[in-house]
Amino acid sequence: MSRTIPAPFAGIRDVLVGTAVEGEREEASSAIGYGLTLAKAAGAHLTVQSASWRLSGDDAWLGDFDYDGVAVIDRRLDALARSIAERSAGDATQAGVICTTEAPSLPYPDIVSRLAWRARLHDLTVLDIGPRTYDLDREMIEKALFHSGRPVVAVPPGHYAFAARRILVAWDGSAQAARAANDALPFLRAAETVEIVSVGDDAQIHAEVPGAEFAPHLARHGVNVSVNDLPRGESVAATLRAQAGLFRADMIVMGAYRHSPIREYFFGGVTRSFLRGSPAPLFLAH
């Protein structure tokens, strides 16, 4: 009996990339290059939202700042955001990718809200992990995860091109981890090798659904999968980070924020740790 092999990345038909300009110097965005090459590999439509953080308007913290001076900064930021959008459109045309660009000029809260709203209309959102002054990158990631119902790929600096030959699935048996692995199936099926990694002692690893019990589900979907149970070591995040390096992972799939962001802020957490620094792009779902 012949077996139908799914097309690579089937189900990824449109990709949203979100960036935000908050300084007068352009910062390199890994997300734009990554999103463009991902869209090309998937044959998907690409949308680039290059927003600028508008200072004038209802930002009460500006106080007695000179309005004319602020308006000049707003125009510069808007021009920079539009320049990024235009360059992205040009790069997409050269790559043969159909691309739509947007360059809204918005106050701080509206940037992340608009991004989350737009994310609902796309299969996947690609965002930067970057050292922003006001953590705008992380807030965009969190808002998209919690309010769009769609997965997010968070791209660390230096990862300008999409790759998914070797994928590590961080597995703790939770609903969030199951959701992430399910949403990532187009990439898992196309990967050369996938490793499910569980971290903890035996009681922790088997507290919910063990990775060894989840692996057959992925195998039935055509995933070339193996399982690796690891002791906790220094921390779950540190152990996962080290294993991703040893495995030479192109992508790490994980459920995001099993605990609330507030609890993670005060007590630490795997998601927050990886958003401060990851060895590979993160495929996240909540």
UniProtKB/TrEMBL annotation:
Database matches in InterPro entries: Universal_stress_UspA (IPR006015), UspA (IPR006016)
CDD domains (alphabetical): USP-like
One family name in Pfam for this protein: Usp
Chain ranges of the UspA domain: 165-284
Family: Belongs to the universal stress protein A family.
Protein name: UspA domain-containing protein
